[in-house]
């Protein structure tokens, strides 16, 4: 396994640490142990550490045991991941590397990293997603103006007024952190109302019947389903806090507004003509699946509408059959839950079976990921 941080899940935990995120959106039921092993599941792992949990965290465990939606603390999930890494000896198979190129041939795949090159029979790209950049029209392209940053960048110290642009869970975390720091927050939301829901996609897509909605549907139909169901939303837990802050005047919500431009200062001009001034602006514009572009030659990715050209049965690149995909980039094959842990499980089973069938007694595949 080649990972840019050198730690399995390192990039994920680094991102949520930056946001100050304390709970996962995925409930306990989405985190069983490793398939095919007698493994400790996340719920059992949390119960084993019952004495270290708060009253609220214990209530969530009881909710999970009763079959209701529950929220998993980040520190519990972090410890559980360390448990899996240790019990399955994952750390000893992980190399810190920034992958530069993935070059497949008809017989092998060469992966060029910043410090070494390795060749294997197959490679699996588990690249996740990258932040969506702001439109060039907002400030003319290039680096953001002074005081403007993205959600995974540090916010300048000493800010008293902050603008948050975005409608999803990341925006909610940014707003919460700013309110806790005593800042007044202006929230710019393109939609006419905030969208609150438990999961980031309809829960049916986590089950076989939901994924079956993509079977036999043409490309246009799948693109429409992705547009409908891969929409920004906020967990219900944030609603009371945000509503109180808005009632108190600490939070000003600009609903149905879109940014036209952002200038030095920080001055944000909305499409309605309204000006919003602050000390800093943080952009949470969502993410886009990492399709493999930039690592694989463009003709092998054959990207259309932001999605790579994959074989639905094996999740291999149609034009590079020795390279497979697990994660968000498989969304057009598996549905919007491909970016979540349940989607990862389905994709992994499909990819592993395909590679095992090809390898027989050959070498283990190389995996590059975040």
From TrEMBL:
Family annotation (InterPro entries): FAD/NAD-bd_sf
Protein name according to UniProt: Uncharacterized protein
Source organism of this protein record: Amycolatopsis vancoresmycina DSM 44592
Taxonomic placement: Bacteria, Bacillati, Actinomycetota, Actinomycetes, Pseudonocardiales
